[in-house]
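ERR on first pass: missing label on line 2. Operator R.T. fixed the label and resubmitted. Corrected input:
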Amino acid sequence: MTKRENILGHYGPLSYEEIGFLLNRMSAYVDKQGMNITIKKKVYSAMVESLENVYKHQDIINGDTEHQPRFSLYLDDNEFSMFSSNSILTFKSTPLKEKLDRVNKLDKSGLKELYKQTILNANVSPKGGAGLGIINIAKVSENKINYTFEPINSEYSYFTINVVISLNSTI
Amino acid sequence: MEPLYIEPTEFTPKVSFDPESSIFEISGFSRPENVIGFYRPILKWLEEYNEKVLSQNIKFEKSLLTINMKMTYFNSASSKFLLDVLLEFMKFHSKGNKVEINWYFEDGDDEILESGEEIADMLGYTFNFIPY
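pass 2 clean. output:
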């Protein structure tokens, strides 16, 4: 494989069952490629946390069909790369940016420590979030998380995160 | 006290807590849509077990509690609750019971092994790490 291949794609409302369907398709693909269990688990974890974040935290814009949840998974010779997008109320972007910038500044041991402090002090929200998803993504990725907030209108933005999982350290 | 037994589903693990044998097992996959709804009854069962069995039966103070964790995958929200479950067992340990925690992982599955090592570190307790 020399060029980037699109392995999985989703656009539209995202159900819990759909997340399972996407995970099963990824697992079948990775198994078929004969990749090892660690890379599979890393991609699996990053996908779960990314897709569950979309599922739990999206702010749906009534009547808008252009900014629904989107997910894409790519593979080239060096890495898996996944993009997850959802609409979000713009006022929520500042704390989210702060969290992403914080994890992007930490190395592996710093992320472990942040994970430990967060899990020991976590209160699980009614949506089932423990504030651990982004930290977990950063831990398994071992790469910086790229992100964008694209303004949709005066209230909403379209939030995208790009998570990269390198193949060289795990195969 | 009645044992706690929960059948596994596509999104939730098998749970088998048997007070008779003092063997407590959680195995499989954990990505519940309602993570609080799944784990809260388990924590409640452990609280009752603590009150009804361990605190009232001094003979049990010397019993060995064996916890078998055989997870294949758990998401971050589940990790918080698995930690809470193990923290309940730590309470039993602090009351004088022997507690043995066996953390199983598929040979080569560094993610599950590392997760177990992190949880052991958070609890400040030694796990037996067992490949299969």
